[in-house]
């Protein structure tokens, strides 16, 4: 509803902020001046011993010099009581003796009708509670005793019992003058198809009252005592009061507990919520036996920015979580998400707490996983990615899922995390798939291990390989060092960096750090984070003399130079390795006969190499190596006709 002009100003004028805040804090009277309305206290929003929380009662504002919390009486009530805006207005208006603005006649009539239904619901709750305490409720009490539900818990959650009588509640309420239409419209009774007298909806069940955020009873939940009942749990039907998809069991108590810092836990049912609350996890709610709806999800986020969804440890629980992910992705906002924790198989919260105690439940909550982790599990679990097509299909599914996120910042962070997980999956497979060993040389059939370096040269990069492999390691080092010095270029060369084959374990480690880094907004800050994450691998790289003298490393402010050098080094490295692959395959194909196709392949490899070299930058960006040495070697192989079997 809308408030008339001036209503909030009048409310603030009538409300003493010092009085409202004084219910939550202990004033420091040595520092405060009560006569001037200048009050000081330890801040109720963060833990502190000094009085840094200031209230100016005359102006009606508060401010904390520690955590910088600020606002007026409405803000304070909303933050400390975890209430919505209109709920806070109504609370302060009642305390100030102000009448809330009248609604239009239709709205007022509807509100009166809802108030009548709510009163009928309260009478039903009282009736069912008395039934539980009577002789008819003995079996229900025995069941609750077996479930170890204490008398205090029964009282707190107002547990009741509906007997098997067809019209037990209906006759009780009509006997008190309640109209039959109200009983039916409240969802407590139903009319038979033959037009006879209404009969009770809840029979032979333990009753759980369902209350809204204002504490009004809007519906009931009933657990059948008969194990053969058609429905183990039954909720009230949709009424003017009760909308199952917009309600949560234990809403108001959970909201209050979450406002005091307790984690909001989303459990499956009534008994789970009660067990969690009794174990000290007061901010527990349940979605009334259905999959969580969009309205319920928004309601959860109004209570807490990051609810923890507690899943059953079976496949059905996991499927429910996967459906919830698709619902939540388009609604995500900064600081607003979900976390998930899975119960052990064949256990509910009550079983876990009884068997292992509240500490086990707390450990489970501490291990709750972010939503992106469940998304990755859904798309990869139980699948094989042994072909490029299957990997591409995974990429397509992940892109489609992330595209649902409307917030561009969150979408970017999801992309970075998925990229990291993808690298962990496929990078590990590549490392385990028998990649070429570091160093050594290929003699046409196998790799020959390099000679061991002397102790004095063991730390040198040149000791990691022999002959022509050194050139590749040097280029790898320049590429990685340049990207570390210019992190703003990581995104531009991400694809090339991910695909290039690295021969040194330290280089693999640095690549992982670079690919795991998120979008760069501050280059200097990003450079520091990369240095911290890379550790000794980067220190060893930067200690190499040929890296220290490389122009893009020396000139960290020249991004264009770095971009040109990276493009050159990637092109030359790929051209060289493509040529070597052709040579290796060609030599293996030799069978003592001249093959024109073989000659053509060797010439094409040499041409590719020369094209890459012709596109190189000027000598200012050169590494100082002999650019034509390998080309001369290749030409000598062709001139010597290595495919002709030599006679002795």
From TrEMBL:
Keyword Magnesium: yes
Catalytic reaction(s) noted: ssDNA + n NTP = ssDNA/pppN(pN)n-1 hybrid + (n-1) diphosphate
Keywords: DNA replication, DNA-binding, DNA-directed RNA polymerase, Magnesium, Metal-binding, Nucleotidyltransferase, Primosome, Transcription, Transferase, Zinc, Zinc-finger
Cofactor remark: Binds 1 zinc ion per monomer.
EC number, UniProt record: 2.7.7.101
Entry comment, domain topic: Contains an N-terminal zinc-binding domain, a central core domain that contains the primase activity, and a C-terminal DnaB-binding domain.
Record's subunit section: Monomer. Interacts with DnaB.
Known role: RNA polymerase that catalyzes the synthesis of short RNA molecules used as primers for DNA polymerase during DNA replication.
Protein name: DNA primase
Organism field: Plastorhodobacter daqingensis
């Amino acid at each position: 509803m809308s408030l008339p002009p001036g209503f909030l100003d009048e409310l603030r004028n009538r409300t003493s902020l010092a009085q409202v805040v004084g219910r939550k804090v202990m004033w420091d009277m040595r520092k405060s001046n009560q006569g001037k309305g200048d009050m000081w206290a330890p801040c109720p929003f963060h833990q502190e011993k000094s009085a840094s929380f200031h209230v100016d009662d005359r102006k009606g504002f508060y401010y904390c010099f520690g955590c910088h919390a600020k606002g007026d009486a409405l803000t304070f009530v909303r933050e400390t009581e975890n209430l919505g805006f209109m709920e806070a207005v109504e609370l302060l208006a009642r305390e100030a003796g102000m009448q809330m603005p009248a609604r239009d006649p239709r709205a007022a009539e509807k509100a009166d009708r809802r108030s009548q239904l709510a009163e009928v619901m309260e009478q039903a709750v009282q009736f069912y509670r008395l039934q539980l305490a009577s002789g008819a409720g003995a079996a229900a009490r025995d069941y609750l005793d077996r479930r170890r539900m204490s008398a205090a818990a029964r009282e707190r959650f107002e547990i009741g019992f509906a007997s098997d009588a067809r019209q037990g509640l209906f006759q009780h309420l009509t006997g008190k003058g309640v109209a039959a239409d109200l009983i039916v419209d409240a969802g407590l009774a139903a009319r038979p198809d033959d037009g006879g007298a209404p009969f009770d909806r809840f029979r032979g069940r333990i009753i759980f009252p369902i209350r809204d955020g204002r504490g009004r009873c809007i519906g009931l939940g009933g657990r059948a005592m008969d194990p053969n009942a058609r429905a183990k749990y039954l909720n009230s039907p949709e009424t003017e009061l009760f909308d199952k998809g917009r309600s949560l069991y234990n809403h108001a108590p959970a909201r209050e507990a979450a406002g005091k810092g307790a984690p909001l836990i989303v459990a499956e049912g009534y008994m789970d919520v009660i067990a969690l609350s009794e174990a000290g996890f007061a901010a527990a709610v349940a979605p009334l036996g259905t999959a969580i709806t969009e309205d319920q999800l928004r309601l959860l986020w109004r209570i807490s920015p990051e609810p923890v969804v507690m899943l059953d440890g079976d496949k059905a629980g996991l499927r429910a979580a996967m459906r919830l992910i698709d619902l939540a992705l388009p609604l995500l906002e900064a600081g607003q998400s979900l976390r998930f924790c899975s119960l052990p198989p064949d256990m509910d919260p009550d079983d876990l707490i009884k068997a292992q105690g509240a500490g086990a439940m707390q450990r489970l909550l501490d291990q709750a996983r972010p939503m992106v982790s469940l998304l990755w599990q859904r798309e990869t679990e139980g699948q094989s990615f042994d072909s490029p097509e299957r990997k591409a299909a995974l990429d397509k599914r992940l892109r489609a899922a992330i595209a649902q996120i409307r917030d561009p910042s969150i979408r970017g962070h999801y992309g970075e995390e998925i990229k990291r997980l993808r690298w962990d999956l496929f990078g590990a497979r590549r490392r385990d798939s028998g990649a070429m060993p570091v160093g050594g040389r290929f003699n046409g059939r196998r790799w020959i291990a390099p000679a061991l370096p002397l102790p004095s040269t063991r730390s040198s990069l040149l000791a990691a390989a022999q002959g022509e492999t050194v050139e590749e390691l040097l280029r790898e080092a320049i590429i990685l060092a340049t990207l570390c010095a210019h992190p703003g270029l990581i995104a531009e060369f991400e694809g090339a960096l991910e695909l290039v084959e690295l021969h040194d374990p330290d280089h693999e480690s640095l690549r992982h750090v670079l690919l795991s880094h998120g979008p760069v907004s501050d280059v200097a800050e990003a450079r520091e984070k990369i240095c911290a994450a890379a550790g000794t691998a980067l220190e060893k790289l930067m200690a190499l003399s040929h890296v220290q003298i490389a122009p893009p490393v020396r000139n960290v402010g020249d991004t264009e130079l770095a971009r040109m050098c990276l493009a050159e080094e990637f092109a030359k490295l790929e051209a060289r390795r493509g040529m070597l692959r052709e040579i290796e395959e060609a030599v293996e194909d030799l069978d003592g006969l001249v093959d024109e196709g073989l000659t053509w392949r060797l010439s094409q490899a040499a041409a590719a190499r020369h094209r890459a070299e012709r596109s190189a930058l000027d000598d200012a960006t050169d590494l100082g190596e002999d650019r034509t040495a390998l080309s001369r070697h290749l030409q000598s192989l062709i001139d010597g006709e290595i495919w002709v079997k030599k006679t002795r």
